[in-house]
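Worked problem 6 (solution included).
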Amino acid sequence: MEIERKFTVRNLPENLADYPYHKIEQAYLNTDPVVRIRRQDDDYYLTYKGKGLLAREEYNLPLNRDSYYHLREKADGNVISKKRYVIPIGHPTFTSDYSEDIDPNSLFVELDLFDPPFAPLVIAEVEFPDEAAANAFLPFDWFDQDVTQDPAYHNSVLSRRTF
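Solution. The predicted structure is:
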């Protein structure tokens, strides 16, 4: 189960270059249900995602390079390319009514800087162990709008966007 919140970004962290990143390319074979292929650095995956905005099923299956490029030729819409920075949260803050203990080393911001034609789009995603933690999470001041419930920010929807 993938449980994540998505945010637009007001400004990038000043020390962004200090964090590791992945080069990601992904394309969609289907958007309802979501069937996606992804190249992340030198790894390749086929992913199925169920319905939902905050929480949904997700299954990843490994692909080899040849299979990925074969399937990419069959993809619909835009191929999405982005650089994903992985930023440890360290000490997350939650609303006062949330009392669960979360390992502070288990939460990360995945900061996606999209390549053209989607640039200058930047999206921050945070994955959580459960919905209670996701709903209680207090975003950083460099985050802007919470777009978790807005399907327009799903990559599968972006893949169908015309320019």
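Discussion: The first helix runs from residue 65 to 72.
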